[in-house]
Design goal:
Blueprint lengths: L2 H5 L11 H20 L30 H6 L2 H28 L25 H7 L2 H28 L1 H16 L2 H12 L3 H27 L3 H8 L4 H9 L4 H24 L11 H8 L8 H28 L9 H16 L12 H24 L5
Length: 400
Protein backbone atom coordinates (compact mmCIF):
# COMPACT_ATOMS: atom_id res chain seq x y z
CA UNK A 1 0.00 0.00 0.00
CA UNK A 2 1.49 3.36 -1.00
CA UNK A 3 1.64 6.44 1.19
CA UNK A 4 -1.08 8.10 -0.87
CA UNK A 5 -3.38 5.12 -0.44
CA UNK A 6 -2.76 5.09 3.29
CA UNK A 7 -3.74 8.73 3.69
CA UNK A 8 -6.95 8.15 1.74
CA UNK A 9 -8.20 5.77 4.48
CA UNK A 10 -9.00 7.80 7.61
CA UNK A 11 -8.57 6.01 10.94
CA UNK A 12 -11.62 4.46 12.49
CA UNK A 13 -13.10 5.76 15.69
CA UNK A 14 -12.13 3.74 18.75
CA UNK A 15 -13.55 3.67 22.22
CA UNK A 16 -11.71 2.90 25.43
CA UNK A 17 -8.22 2.21 23.95
CA UNK A 18 -4.87 3.83 24.38
CA UNK A 19 -3.12 5.58 21.51
CA UNK A 20 -0.01 3.38 21.81
CA UNK A 21 -1.90 0.12 21.38
CA UNK A 22 -3.78 1.43 18.34
CA UNK A 23 -0.52 2.48 16.68
CA UNK A 24 0.97 -0.97 17.29
CA UNK A 25 -2.01 -2.73 15.71
CA UNK A 26 -1.95 -0.35 12.74
CA UNK A 27 1.76 -0.90 12.18
CA UNK A 28 1.34 -4.68 12.29
CA UNK A 29 -1.48 -4.60 9.74
CA UNK A 30 0.42 -2.28 7.43
CA UNK A 31 3.59 -4.35 7.76
CA UNK A 32 1.68 -7.48 6.83
CA UNK A 33 0.24 -5.72 3.77
CA UNK A 34 3.60 -4.32 2.61
CA UNK A 35 5.34 -7.62 3.18
CA UNK A 36 2.87 -9.50 1.00
CA UNK A 37 2.99 -6.88 -1.78
CA UNK A 38 6.74 -6.10 -1.82
CA UNK A 39 8.31 -9.38 -0.78
CA UNK A 40 9.47 -8.27 2.71
CA UNK A 41 7.80 -11.22 4.40
CA UNK A 42 6.24 -14.40 3.06
CA UNK A 43 2.74 -15.08 4.25
CA UNK A 44 2.28 -18.66 5.35
CA UNK A 45 -1.51 -18.77 5.36
CA UNK A 46 -4.50 -17.38 3.59
CA UNK A 47 -5.73 -13.81 4.01
CA UNK A 48 -5.83 -10.44 2.30
CA UNK A 49 -2.49 -8.67 2.39
CA UNK A 50 -3.88 -5.20 1.75
CA UNK A 51 -6.73 -5.29 4.25
CA UNK A 52 -7.15 -2.09 6.26
CA UNK A 53 -6.35 -2.25 9.98
CA UNK A 54 -9.18 -3.59 12.08
CA UNK A 55 -9.81 -1.74 15.30
CA UNK A 56 -13.10 -3.44 16.16
CA UNK A 57 -11.42 -5.56 18.82
CA UNK A 58 -10.65 -2.42 20.81
CA UNK A 59 -14.32 -1.97 21.73
CA UNK A 60 -14.11 -4.90 24.15
CA UNK A 61 -11.48 -3.30 26.34
CA UNK A 62 -13.90 -1.14 28.28
CA UNK A 63 -13.49 2.42 29.39
CA UNK A 64 -10.34 2.75 31.49
CA UNK A 65 -10.86 6.39 32.33
CA UNK A 66 -11.42 7.10 36.03
CA UNK A 67 -14.91 8.20 36.95
CA UNK A 68 -15.51 11.66 38.30
CA UNK A 69 -15.71 12.27 42.03
CA UNK A 70 -19.44 13.03 41.92
CA UNK A 71 -20.13 9.82 40.00
CA UNK A 72 -18.19 7.74 42.52
CA UNK A 73 -20.20 9.32 45.33
CA UNK A 74 -23.55 8.70 43.64
CA UNK A 75 -22.66 5.10 42.81
CA UNK A 76 -22.89 4.14 46.49
CA UNK A 77 -26.29 3.10 47.88
CA UNK A 78 -25.78 5.03 51.13
CA UNK A 79 -25.34 8.24 49.14
CA UNK A 80 -28.66 7.79 47.35
CA UNK A 81 -30.46 7.16 50.63
CA UNK A 82 -28.72 10.12 52.25
CA UNK A 83 -29.71 12.48 49.45
CA UNK A 84 -33.31 11.28 49.62
CA UNK A 85 -33.57 11.81 53.40
CA UNK A 86 -31.82 15.17 53.28
CA UNK A 87 -33.90 16.27 50.30
CA UNK A 88 -37.17 15.54 52.10
CA UNK A 89 -36.22 17.72 55.06
CA UNK A 90 -34.87 20.46 52.79
CA UNK A 91 -38.12 20.59 50.82
CA UNK A 92 -40.17 20.84 54.02
CA UNK A 93 -37.92 23.54 55.47
CA UNK A 94 -37.63 25.67 52.32
CA UNK A 95 -41.16 25.39 50.98
CA UNK A 96 -42.89 25.16 54.37
CA UNK A 97 -43.15 28.92 55.09
CA UNK A 98 -44.80 29.52 51.70
CA UNK A 99 -47.51 26.86 52.06
CA UNK A 100 -48.39 27.30 55.75
CA UNK A 101 -51.61 29.36 55.29
CA UNK A 102 -52.83 27.19 52.40
CA UNK A 103 -52.25 23.87 54.15
CA UNK A 104 -53.22 24.69 57.72
CA UNK A 105 -55.33 27.84 57.54
CA UNK A 106 -53.29 29.40 60.37
CA UNK A 107 -50.16 31.48 60.65
CA UNK A 108 -47.30 30.25 62.86
CA UNK A 109 -48.15 32.70 65.67
CA UNK A 110 -51.95 32.83 65.41
CA UNK A 111 -54.28 31.34 68.03
CA UNK A 112 -55.80 28.06 66.77
CA UNK A 113 -57.47 26.56 69.85
CA UNK A 114 -56.99 25.53 73.42
CA UNK A 115 -53.43 24.62 74.53
CA UNK A 116 -52.50 21.01 73.84
CA UNK A 117 -55.77 20.33 72.09
CA UNK A 118 -56.06 17.15 70.05
CA UNK A 119 -56.44 17.00 66.29
CA UNK A 120 -54.28 16.06 63.35
CA UNK A 121 -51.19 17.49 65.04
CA UNK A 122 -52.92 19.57 67.70
CA UNK A 123 -51.85 22.83 69.31
CA UNK A 124 -48.87 23.81 71.43
CA UNK A 125 -48.60 25.31 74.90
CA UNK A 126 -50.11 28.64 73.80
CA UNK A 127 -52.78 27.23 71.49
CA UNK A 128 -50.86 27.76 68.24
CA UNK A 129 -51.08 25.23 65.43
CA UNK A 130 -48.20 22.72 65.69
CA UNK A 131 -48.06 21.94 61.96
CA UNK A 132 -47.87 25.63 61.05
CA UNK A 133 -44.97 26.25 63.40
CA UNK A 134 -43.23 23.08 62.27
CA UNK A 135 -43.40 24.01 58.58
CA UNK A 136 -42.20 27.56 59.26
CA UNK A 137 -39.47 26.71 61.76
CA UNK A 138 -36.96 24.67 59.77
CA UNK A 139 -35.30 27.14 57.42
CA UNK A 140 -33.57 29.07 60.21
CA UNK A 141 -32.00 25.91 61.57
CA UNK A 142 -30.73 24.92 58.14
CA UNK A 143 -29.52 28.42 57.28
CA UNK A 144 -27.58 28.93 60.50
CA UNK A 145 -26.13 25.43 60.31
CA UNK A 146 -24.99 25.91 56.71
CA UNK A 147 -23.41 29.30 57.44
CA UNK A 148 -21.61 27.96 60.51
CA UNK A 149 -20.33 25.01 58.46
CA UNK A 150 -19.04 27.25 55.67
CA UNK A 151 -17.32 29.52 58.19
CA UNK A 152 -15.76 26.71 60.19
CA UNK A 153 -14.60 24.61 57.23
CA UNK A 154 -13.34 27.62 55.29
CA UNK A 155 -11.38 29.06 58.20
CA UNK A 156 -10.03 25.68 59.25
CA UNK A 157 -9.00 24.76 55.69
CA UNK A 158 -7.07 28.02 55.23
CA UNK A 159 -5.31 27.68 58.58
CA UNK A 160 -4.51 24.00 58.00
CA UNK A 161 -3.04 24.60 54.53
CA UNK A 162 -0.96 27.53 55.76
CA UNK A 163 0.33 25.53 58.71
CA UNK A 164 1.43 22.61 56.51
CA UNK A 165 2.76 24.75 53.65
CA UNK A 166 4.73 27.30 55.64
CA UNK A 167 5.69 25.24 58.68
CA UNK A 168 8.00 26.59 61.36
CA UNK A 169 6.74 29.11 63.87
CA UNK A 170 3.50 29.75 61.95
CA UNK A 171 2.59 26.06 62.11
CA UNK A 172 3.29 25.95 65.84
CA UNK A 173 1.29 29.15 66.48
CA UNK A 174 -1.78 27.97 64.57
CA UNK A 175 -1.80 24.54 66.17
CA UNK A 176 -1.29 25.84 69.72
CA UNK A 177 -4.12 28.37 69.33
CA UNK A 178 -6.29 25.52 68.10
CA UNK A 179 -5.36 23.46 71.16
CA UNK A 180 -6.61 26.26 73.40
CA UNK A 181 -10.00 26.27 71.67
CA UNK A 182 -10.18 22.48 71.74
CA UNK A 183 -9.61 22.51 75.49
CA UNK A 184 -12.87 24.46 75.97
CA UNK A 185 -16.05 22.41 75.37
CA UNK A 186 -18.08 23.71 72.46
CA UNK A 187 -21.28 24.10 74.46
CA UNK A 188 -19.54 25.97 77.29
CA UNK A 189 -17.87 28.33 74.82
CA UNK A 190 -21.24 28.96 73.14
CA UNK A 191 -22.89 29.66 76.51
CA UNK A 192 -20.25 32.24 77.37
CA UNK A 193 -20.47 33.96 73.98
CA UNK A 194 -24.28 34.06 73.92
CA UNK A 195 -24.39 35.37 77.48
CA UNK A 196 -22.05 38.24 76.60
CA UNK A 197 -23.27 39.10 73.08
CA UNK A 198 -26.90 38.05 73.34
CA UNK A 199 -28.96 35.28 71.68
CA UNK A 200 -28.75 36.40 68.07
CA UNK A 201 -28.40 34.49 64.85
CA UNK A 202 -25.00 35.84 63.85
CA UNK A 203 -23.67 34.99 67.30
CA UNK A 204 -24.69 31.36 66.86
CA UNK A 205 -23.05 31.20 63.42
CA UNK A 206 -19.83 32.81 64.66
CA UNK A 207 -19.50 30.70 67.78
CA UNK A 208 -20.21 27.36 66.11
CA UNK A 209 -18.00 28.20 63.13
CA UNK A 210 -15.05 29.20 65.29
CA UNK A 211 -15.32 26.03 67.36
CA UNK A 212 -15.28 23.93 64.17
CA UNK A 213 -12.14 25.58 62.77
CA UNK A 214 -9.47 23.89 64.98
CA UNK A 215 -10.76 20.39 64.26
CA UNK A 216 -10.93 21.06 60.52
CA UNK A 217 -7.46 22.64 60.57
CA UNK A 218 -5.90 19.49 62.01
CA UNK A 219 -7.42 17.25 59.34
CA UNK A 220 -6.54 19.57 56.45
CA UNK A 221 -3.02 20.10 57.80
CA UNK A 222 -2.40 16.33 57.71
CA UNK A 223 -3.82 16.06 54.18
CA UNK A 224 -1.82 19.04 52.92
CA UNK A 225 1.43 17.75 54.40
CA UNK A 226 1.29 14.76 52.05
CA UNK A 227 0.69 16.97 49.01
CA UNK A 228 3.32 19.69 49.51
CA UNK A 229 6.09 17.07 49.35
CA UNK A 230 5.13 16.01 45.80
CA UNK A 231 7.35 16.84 42.85
CA UNK A 232 4.86 19.08 41.06
CA UNK A 233 4.56 21.33 44.13
CA UNK A 234 8.33 21.49 44.47
CA UNK A 235 8.59 22.33 40.78
CA UNK A 236 6.12 25.18 41.19
CA UNK A 237 8.14 26.55 44.07
CA UNK A 238 11.33 26.26 42.03
CA UNK A 239 9.79 28.38 39.27
CA UNK A 240 8.74 31.03 41.82
CA UNK A 241 5.00 30.50 41.40
CA UNK A 242 3.06 32.59 43.95
CA UNK A 243 2.07 30.66 47.03
CA UNK A 244 -1.62 31.39 46.67
CA UNK A 245 -1.59 29.89 43.17
CA UNK A 246 0.17 26.78 44.45
CA UNK A 247 -2.42 26.36 47.18
CA UNK A 248 -5.43 26.93 44.92
CA UNK A 249 -4.23 25.04 41.83
CA UNK A 250 -2.07 22.25 43.24
CA UNK A 251 -3.06 21.66 46.85
CA UNK A 252 -6.82 22.23 46.99
CA UNK A 253 -7.76 19.77 44.18
CA UNK A 254 -5.73 17.03 45.86
CA UNK A 255 -7.29 17.47 49.32
CA UNK A 256 -10.86 17.81 48.06
CA UNK A 257 -11.81 14.37 49.37
CA UNK A 258 -10.98 15.01 53.06
CA UNK A 259 -12.35 18.53 52.70
CA UNK A 260 -15.74 17.29 51.52
CA UNK A 261 -15.85 14.74 54.31
CA UNK A 262 -15.29 17.52 56.83
CA UNK A 263 -18.09 19.54 55.26
CA UNK A 264 -20.55 16.70 55.80
CA UNK A 265 -19.43 16.03 59.37
CA UNK A 266 -19.38 19.68 60.41
CA UNK A 267 -22.84 20.23 58.93
CA UNK A 268 -24.15 17.41 61.10
CA UNK A 269 -22.52 18.85 64.21
CA UNK A 270 -23.79 22.35 63.37
CA UNK A 271 -27.38 21.12 63.14
CA UNK A 272 -27.11 19.51 66.56
CA UNK A 273 -25.41 22.58 68.08
CA UNK A 274 -27.98 25.08 66.79
CA UNK A 275 -30.89 22.88 67.89
CA UNK A 276 -29.30 22.35 71.32
CA UNK A 277 -28.76 26.07 71.91
CA UNK A 278 -32.34 26.81 70.89
CA UNK A 279 -33.58 24.09 73.24
CA UNK A 280 -31.63 25.68 76.09
CA UNK A 281 -33.14 29.08 75.35
CA UNK A 282 -29.90 30.56 74.00
CA UNK A 283 -30.79 30.39 70.31
CA UNK A 284 -34.01 31.60 68.75
CA UNK A 285 -36.28 33.44 71.15
CA UNK A 286 -40.10 33.20 71.41
CA UNK A 287 -42.37 33.66 69.53
CA UNK A 288 -40.04 32.74 66.64
CA UNK A 289 -40.97 29.35 65.16
CA UNK A 290 -37.94 27.07 65.51
CA UNK A 291 -37.58 23.31 65.81
CA UNK A 292 -35.30 23.41 68.83
CA UNK A 293 -37.51 25.96 70.54
CA UNK A 294 -40.61 23.87 69.82
CA UNK A 295 -39.06 20.92 71.68
CA UNK A 296 -38.42 23.09 74.72
CA UNK A 297 -41.89 24.65 74.69
CA UNK A 298 -43.87 21.42 74.36
CA UNK A 299 -41.83 18.97 76.42
CA UNK A 300 -43.92 19.65 79.54
CA UNK A 301 -46.95 17.95 77.92
CA UNK A 302 -45.19 15.20 76.00
CA UNK A 303 -47.61 12.52 77.16
CA UNK A 304 -50.68 14.69 76.49
CA UNK A 305 -49.78 16.17 73.10
CA UNK A 306 -46.60 14.55 71.74
CA UNK A 307 -46.68 15.97 68.20
CA UNK A 308 -45.19 19.28 69.24
CA UNK A 309 -42.03 17.34 70.19
CA UNK A 310 -42.14 14.38 67.82
CA UNK A 311 -42.30 16.41 64.58
CA UNK A 312 -39.19 18.57 65.17
CA UNK A 313 -37.24 15.68 66.72
CA UNK A 314 -38.06 13.44 63.76
CA UNK A 315 -37.05 16.14 61.26
CA UNK A 316 -33.73 16.80 63.01
CA UNK A 317 -33.02 13.07 63.27
CA UNK A 318 -33.76 12.43 59.57
CA UNK A 319 -31.63 15.40 58.53
CA UNK A 320 -28.75 14.23 60.72
CA UNK A 321 -28.89 10.67 59.39
CA UNK A 322 -29.05 11.91 55.80
CA UNK A 323 -26.04 14.19 56.13
CA UNK A 324 -24.08 11.42 57.87
CA UNK A 325 -24.80 9.00 55.04
CA UNK A 326 -23.65 11.57 52.49
CA UNK A 327 -20.47 12.15 54.49
CA UNK A 328 -19.81 8.38 54.57
CA UNK A 329 -20.29 8.17 50.81
CA UNK A 330 -17.90 11.07 50.24
CA UNK A 331 -15.34 9.40 52.48
CA UNK A 332 -15.65 6.15 50.54
CA UNK A 333 -15.33 7.92 47.20
CA UNK A 334 -12.26 9.88 48.31
CA UNK A 335 -10.65 6.63 49.50
CA UNK A 336 -11.18 5.05 46.05
CA UNK A 337 -13.35 2.15 47.23
CA UNK A 338 -15.69 2.44 44.23
CA UNK A 339 -14.86 1.03 40.79
CA UNK A 340 -14.89 3.64 38.05
CA UNK A 341 -16.80 2.24 35.08
CA UNK A 342 -16.77 -1.55 35.11
CA UNK A 343 -15.54 -4.72 36.78
CA UNK A 344 -11.78 -4.88 37.02
CA UNK A 345 -11.43 -8.55 36.18
CA UNK A 346 -13.58 -8.38 33.04
CA UNK A 347 -11.75 -5.31 31.73
CA UNK A 348 -8.36 -6.93 32.24
CA UNK A 349 -9.46 -10.17 30.59
CA UNK A 350 -10.89 -8.24 27.63
CA UNK A 351 -7.71 -6.19 27.30
CA UNK A 352 -5.50 -9.27 27.28
CA UNK A 353 -7.70 -11.04 24.75
CA UNK A 354 -7.77 -7.99 22.48
CA UNK A 355 -4.01 -7.59 22.68
CA UNK A 356 -3.43 -11.26 21.82
CA UNK A 357 -5.85 -11.11 18.88
CA UNK A 358 -4.43 -7.89 17.50
CA UNK A 359 -0.66 -8.41 17.90
CA UNK A 360 0.12 -12.14 18.05
CA UNK A 361 -0.04 -14.23 14.85
CA UNK A 362 -1.33 -17.81 15.16
CA UNK A 363 0.43 -20.73 13.52
CA UNK A 364 -0.38 -20.91 9.83
CA UNK A 365 -2.02 -17.44 9.91
CA UNK A 366 -1.31 -14.27 7.95
CA UNK A 367 1.69 -13.02 9.97
CA UNK A 368 5.03 -12.54 8.22
CA UNK A 369 8.04 -14.65 9.10
CA UNK A 370 10.37 -11.70 9.50
CA UNK A 371 8.13 -9.69 11.84
CA UNK A 372 7.29 -12.35 14.44
CA UNK A 373 9.58 -11.02 17.14
CA UNK A 374 8.32 -7.47 16.75
CA UNK A 375 4.70 -8.59 16.82
CA UNK A 376 5.22 -10.58 20.05
CA UNK A 377 6.92 -7.63 21.71
CA UNK A 378 4.14 -5.29 20.61
CA UNK A 379 1.53 -7.71 21.94
CA UNK A 380 3.18 -7.79 25.35
CA UNK A 381 3.49 -4.01 25.40
CA UNK A 382 -0.14 -3.51 24.40
CA UNK A 383 -1.32 -5.98 27.02
CA UNK A 384 0.72 -4.28 29.72
CA UNK A 385 -0.54 -0.84 28.72
CA UNK A 386 -4.17 -1.99 28.74
CA UNK A 387 -3.79 -3.74 32.11
CA UNK A 388 -2.16 -0.64 33.58
CA UNK A 389 -4.94 1.54 32.24
CA UNK A 390 -7.50 -0.77 33.85
CA UNK A 391 -5.71 -0.48 37.18
CA UNK A 392 -5.70 3.30 36.94
CA UNK A 393 -9.42 3.30 36.18
CA UNK A 394 -10.15 1.23 39.31
CA UNK A 395 -8.24 3.34 41.78
CA UNK A 396 -10.06 6.51 40.79
CA UNK A 397 -7.15 8.62 42.03
CA UNK A 398 -6.19 11.67 39.99
CA UNK A 399 -3.32 14.02 40.56
CA UNK A 400 -3.08 17.44 39.11
Amino acid sequence: MSAQDRTSHPPRQTRGTSAASDVVVAEDALAAGDGAGGGLGAATGSGDAGTAPDFDHSESRGDARPASFARRVLSQPVAKLGFVLTGIVLVLAVLGPFVVPAWTGHTPNSFAGKPFQGGVFGTDNLGRDVLSRFLAGGWRLLLYSALATVLGVGLGAVLGMLAAFRGGWLDALIMRCGDVLLAIPQLVFALLAVTVLGPQGWVLVLVIGVTHAPRVARVIRAATAGVVAEDYVLASQMYAVPQWKILTRDVVPNIMGPLMVEVGLRLTYSIGAVASLSFLGLGMQPPTPDWGLMINENRIALSLQPWGVILPVLAIAVLTVGTNLIADAVAGASAGRVASTGPRRSRRRAAEQAASNGAESPAGGTGSAGGTGRADGAGRSSSADAAGAADVGDTGEKRS
